[in-house]
Design goal:
The structure is a single chain. This protein is an all-alpha fold and 87 residues long. The protein has a single domain, classed as Orthogonal Bundle (434 Repressor (Amino-terminal Domain)). It contains five helices and no strands. The longest helix has 15 residues.
């Protein structure tokens, strides 16, 4: 398994996104189709092998039927609770 290029806050972010996808009852393939990507793209994101930019985060939030601001706030609070910083 390749070593992740991320630590701390980044891993919390992708974990919240993965949990949100699973709570929505979507497989990686289904989420990928909703944002116009293939399954491997979502796998790389969830495996901490690829970073998200803000536009992609908003697309994913909408594809998960979530308000992007609400999801961002959820992610932010999760990172704060984790004790990791954004540095």
């Amino acid at each position: 398994m390749p070593k992740t290029i991320f630590t701390g806050a980044n891993q919390v972010i992708v974990e919240v996104l993965r949990q949100t996808r699973e709570s929505a009852g979507l497989k990686q393939e289904e989420l990928a189709a909703r944002i116009g990507r293939d399954q491997s793209h979502i796998s790389l994101v969830e495996g901490s092998q690829r970073r998200l930019d803000l536009v992609e985060f908003m697309r994913i939030a909408r594809a998960l039927d979530r308000d992007p601001v609400d999801l961002f706030n959820e992610v932010y609070r999760a990172v704060e609770r984790s004790g990791h910083d954004f540095g």
